[in-house]
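Ticket #420: bound-state structure for EPU.
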Amino acid sequence: MDSLLIKGGKPLHGVVDISGAKNAVLPIMAATLLTPERCVIRNVPDLADVGMMERILTSMGASVQRDGGTLTVQASRISDKADYDLVRKMRGSICVLGPLLGRLHRATVSMPGGCVIGVRPIDLHLKGMRALGAEVKTMAGYVRVKSRRLVGAPVFLGGRAGPTVLGTANVMMAAVLAEGQTIIESAACEPEVTDLAKFLNAMGAKIAGAGGPTITITGVKQLHGAEHEVIPDRIEAATYAIAGVATRGEVTLRGARIEHLTAVIDKLRDMGVKVEGHAGGITFKRGRSLRPVDITTLPYPGFPTDVQAQMMTLLTLIPGISIITERIFEARFSHAAELLRLGADLAIEGPSAIIKGGSPLSGAPVMASDLRASAALVIAGLVAKGITQVNRIYHLDRGYEKIDAKLHGLGASVSRVAGS
Ligand code: EPU
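RESOLUTION: The complex was predicted; output attached.
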């Protein structure tokens, strides 16, 4: 597998264009299954996960065409079964369940397993489907849902760690074609959910309240084709902002939305980073000295779990003690051991990481088996003395469009090495 060779020590400077959001485009692609008519999605990032979702839609009978950042999908006739091997490779593909139930009243999708960041159950997704009248069975590695009629209902989607993002998306996509009204309480408020609701409304759905904790969906008989432009990726944006600060540089994010980054910007300002929004984007500049901070990951608008790893790298560089508490996923610290390998001083105590910042990092071969952990290691490599080889960058390609080219454009010394 490919790896990324990084020669550390160069401050990042310049402007980076932020791509369309991975976690918005995946459910939006799944939503195209709700209509036999043609849908056009713009600002689609070129990512391995998007390619995987294209294959899943194609395997179900949809025609999918890509022209640059524009994806045209037509799901004239579709099967109610998603390919086992394709679905189990990407957890995000569970969001085909809701549209299939909504349109066909039945679906068979492989049960997504846990992954390196946690157990990741789908009980809340299934609770929502049952509330709408579906019968749910899990057997032989599959989840099967079916219903003669789908009827709107009140659904409470709060779980152990708060609301569920893809669970909210799934229930919303099933409910748009149900009879009557569905009210989702404790809905996820993430901008990706709002973006999906916008697309569904453009298709003729009646959804109100997305972006808040109560979403009201009034079922309609059918949906039609629509066009949509995907929001910019707030996690990619935060990653480049942190990389800029960590390397003592100055980075401007072009196309990022400041209102989606409030919690991250607030923490960076607490640390002493200067953040300025302007017509050309958002610029992040390191102050003279940075202060340690404590961070707890929370559902939106709280600090995103998807930025926790990158922030950990930054905090290892700041003298003093910082504490990061991970409240969304129970095992999302796989980057910590690799940061130790680079010379960081930190310890994990239950859901918290205690970081004694200020030790110098020095390059080494590292590997992470999840996307954001890999991003954290890239940032560490950009700062570390000497050469860092980040192995298995397959994970980065799942969620960061052209990361080597973008970092190169900001002045980093990075090269991709083809692996076996
Ligand atoms: N949960 C349950 N039951 C459920 C569903 C979730 O207990 O039925 C728990 C999870 O185990 C977790 C918490 O609820 O503790 C939140 O999980 P959520 O369902 O919100 O996560 P997700 O929808 O599966 C999406 C993103 C993740 C991101 C999380 C949280 C996509 C494709 N994935 O996952 O993105 O971390 O929301 O914001 O949208 C990433 O991009 O690197 C990534 C992992």
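RESOLUTION NOTES: The first strand starts at residue 3 and ends at 7.
TICKET STATUS: resolved
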